[in-house]
Each structure stands twice: as C-alpha cells, then as structure tokens.
Specification:
globular, 102 residues, 42% helix, 11% strand, 3 strands, alpha+beta
Length: 102
C-alpha cells in the first residue's frame, strides 16, 4: 500500500521472483526491467492507500549467466528472510532445501 517504502516493496518483489523461480525448479532469474524506472510514479499517488502503478518483469533462466542482472534465488531468499519472517511457499521451500543440501 502507500505506506510501504519503495525499498521494502522492491525487496519483496525480488523475493517473490526468487520464490517463483524456485517453484519452477530453477535457481537463477534475470530482471528484464528495473523497478527504479517507476520510482517517480510512487511520488504521484494521491492517496496513501493507493497501490503504486509499477511493474517488474523477470525471466527464469535454465542456468547461471554472467549478465549483471542475473540473481541467484537462494541468495535473494537468504537476504530477505528476516523481512519476510521466513515465509516461503511449500513448493519453493522444498526446492530451496534440495539446493542448499547440495
């Protein structure tokens, strides 16, 4: 909502991308658009309860890439775990557990 900071919204967006990536049995994803491009729209909301009009496009990768926009879902989950209070979908948690054991 309008009371959520841009940084927290971006953090949860990255976590959700990581969660979806793990749910698909993959580990890496790439940002197709930078959410920072939409930062100005957050300032233009007329009501603090209005959802900011932003989007985040990402693609799940079959393997790691050298691109600077590639993220490791495991690392993103680990870095955002405190903010998310450890919540993760059962399917994502299952694949996360498999990956960290190997």
């Amino acid at each position: 909502n309008g009371y959520t900071s841009f940084d927290l919204a971006a953090q949860f967006t990255m976590r959700r991308c990581a969660e979806i990536t793990l749910e698909q049995g993959k580990r890496y994803f790439i940002k197709a658009l930078n959410p920072g491009q939409y930062k100005a729209k957050f300032k233009s909301t007329s009501s603090p309860n209005r959802t900011p009009p932003a989007q985040f496009i990402f693609m799940i990768l079959d393997s790691k890439s050298d691109s600077p926009n590639v993220f490791d879902a495991i690392r993103v989950i680990d870095e955002t775990d405190n903010s998310a209070k450890g919540k993760l979908s059962p399917k994502a948690q299952e694949y996360y557990d498999i990956l960290i054991k190997n």
